[in-house]
Amino acid sequence: MSEKHLAGKTILMSGGSRGIGLAIALRAARDGANIALLAKTDTPHPKLEGTVHSAADQIRAAGGDALPIVGDVRNDDDVTEAVLKTQGEFGGIDIVVNNASVIDLSRSLDLQAKKYDLMQDVNVRGTFMLSRAAVPILRDAANPHILSLSPPLNLSPKWLGAHTGYTLAKYGMTMATLGLAAEFAKDGIAANTLWPQTTIATAAVRYALGGEAMMAASRTPEIYADAAYEVLTRPAGELTGQTLIVEEVLREAGVTDFSRYAAVAGTPDDQLFPDIFLD
Predict the structure, then answer these.
(1) Containing domain of residue 29, as a range?
(2) How large is the average pLDDT for residues 8-14?
(3) Global pTM?
């Protein structure tokens, strides 16, 4: 794509030190976007690569401008400060990406109460509070978008009963996003969710789902990033209140061959592991 649609646009993202969030940030950075990351990762984690600072370095190297903000999306003061710092640094906010998320697939009798609370606080409350805090600034943007990395609301017992605590948290992200889409449609703010058909090779997949075998049956975060780019460059008035699927977004954009997104080159599509919440 020759045109740089996100040049000069400002994205405020929760998380983003690694994985899908960082991939989305780097795709926008190639256009020359400004990206503010609100993340807790001030210092390296023993198991997980990347901090908010190393992510900012990668964003700058890719051609964007970066504002690393050490903070917690669960903390209201941190959320307010992130919005104000982003506006102060870049003059506005065009896009909010709700990327921060906690996963625990424990069955209901095994799920620790503190983990249930953590998933609700980060996934649902964090999505709502960060988006809400940015709305007054998004209203002034030329093409304002909110994008949450959460699934469509599939009420099949297969998914409702598989991991009820996590399902509540991810569906809560989606409900918050669809509610904001309806509430602020009159302001021209688009709000959508985006979810992949296959698992994505991230730390969450390695440590929470199935180790290296699952990683090998996944697609790279770049497929999510390319789909997010397509959504965020669409006119806000044309696309809002939708629960979008990564591959469907890319097909609509003319992509027919997904082989380059395989985490292990040459893995056929039918050997990739389907993501949860999709029948």
Answers:
(1) 10-271
(2) 98
(3) 0.96
